[in-house]
Amino acid sequence: MWLFTKFGFVSVVEDVVDSNLLLVRARTYRDILLLLAYMPRHLDASDIRETKDADYRYRMFVTRSDFKEALVGIVDGIDYPNFKDAVARTDVPRARLYEKVWRLLRSEIQRTYIKVGDKLTNVVDFMRETRE
After folding, report:
1. pTM exceeds 0.70, yes or no
2. Are residues 101 and 125 in the same domain?
3. How many domains does the chain have?
């Protein structure tokens, strides 16, 4: 799972050895460190490992329940009507990066078609029609 927040971006996957653990990965130390603020108190910066040759340089193993607790805190902290604007208020370079991701995903979804009944329908058109 990719998780974009106001404070950072992390990737979360199941540990290959212990399915009770999740591996939280970040490309920057800052992103994973700020996530720690939402984790239970028994986790701290000493739990972060650096893997210099990895795509995601910073990693930590957490239990599923610890990560759920962090997600609850992140959700409880949503205090904005527009995510991109909220990011831009505190971190303009990150907001620009998130905007690029948003644009790429938007352009991809506009080219995506699904089968509805006997015909192919553009996803954007389908979503628009189902709201009306």
Report:
1. yes
2. yes
3. 2
